[in-house]
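Justification of computing resources. Each target in the renewal requires a structure prediction run like the one illustrated here; the chain below, 134 residues long, is used simply to show the kind of job we budget for.
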Amino acid sequence: MKIIDMVRIATGENGTFGVLLDEGMPFAVTLEPEWKDNQKNISCIPSGEYICNDTNSVRFGYTFQIDQVPDRTHILFHCGNFTKDTKGCILIGEQFENDCILASRHGFKEFIYRLKGCGTFMLKITEHNIKGAE
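Resulting structure tokens:
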């Protein structure tokens, strides 16, 4: 099974910022809400390992859903630039900016390309020396 690592590197009122890695190589950046005790729609999910399955979202089209998140459902990867664009999901882009990520469509396209032919993958979320997240 393919493994994608997500390393969270900073968090604050503007969100939780991270990097996606494929076989140890970074290829995209991420943005999630800041940690708020895993509350639905307003918090990032806990660090850990999750199975992700492909899905067709009515709103976002072909993407992947993160399954078996404690007390949460419908956590998706999708395009977006600001934390207002996510309801607890993971946004993907190519560049960090002050309070957002940029080139989301390009970053998301790279994410989907790397998972071509994979209906399922393992997501490993870790924290790198940040405060405020679990």
